[in-house]
Amino acid sequence: xxxxxxxxxxxxxxxxxxxxxxxxxxxxxxxxxxxxxxxxxxxxxxxxxxxxxxxxxxxxxxxxxxxxxxxxxxxxxxxxxxxxxxxxxxxxxxxxxxxxxxxxxxxxxxxxxxxxxxxxxxxxxxxxxxxxxxxxxxxxxxxxxxxxxxxxxxxxxxxxxxxxxxxxxxxxxxxxxxxxxxxxxxxxxxxxxxxxxxxxxxxxxxxxxxxxxxxxxxxxxxxxxxxxxxxxxxxxxxxxxxxxxxxxxxxxxxxxxxxxxxxxxxxxxxxxxxxxxx
Length: 278
Known about the structure:
Layout: H1 2-14, H2 16-30, E1 39-42, E2 45-48, H3 59-70, H4 73-88, H5 91-97, H6 102-135, H7 141-144, H8 149-172, H9 175-200, H10 206-211, H11 215-222, H12 231-239, H13 252-275
Antiparallel strand pairs: 1-2
């Protein structure tokens, strides 16, 4: 396992584009901290983002994981490019000639995915603790660690999404086309969601029950948007007579669905590679 990871890390680090994208991803994660410094005055009105409560425990776990998940596209590009380069530079064929089995090859890619997901999760976890203890009004131990399920959801979301990207990279072979396919699939899910919700099942929860099994939708369901959860937003909604019934918890069903899709993507990646003439 260590040998396989070492091989993949060398490939990524020796590729300038992959190295820059990986470093950019982690640097951009740090920019979440800069949100706290946003402040401005309009006449007698003083506004600072940190005072809105987004860095309060336990809400900060929700906000930071949601914001960090948006940046996952940077590592997705690395993973898709990593697979495309295997075909372009002939390293895949060379690895197989050197004795690496196709199963070990897929395993090496998945270990790299896990490494990216673990590093991202630990990074966000530490960053959240630092920001929370710096700005949160609540620092009691029970409150600080009461919403850690968002960290688990963040990890599962990254592993599932990166596995999907690996599958597309193996399927399409070209990074630009693979990323284009990812965009097209996102549009397909959105259109299907719209048709089911507004045309076929305009009433009830049937549409939501069906669409929760779509891969990208399942990943999205792991961490729903956190902005409407803010007390200030809820207060505005209450004054306007809008009742917020959204469930902000991490659904266990979504974790199971994403896990199943991850296994499916890995299996399909292996089957394609096994049956393809290299």
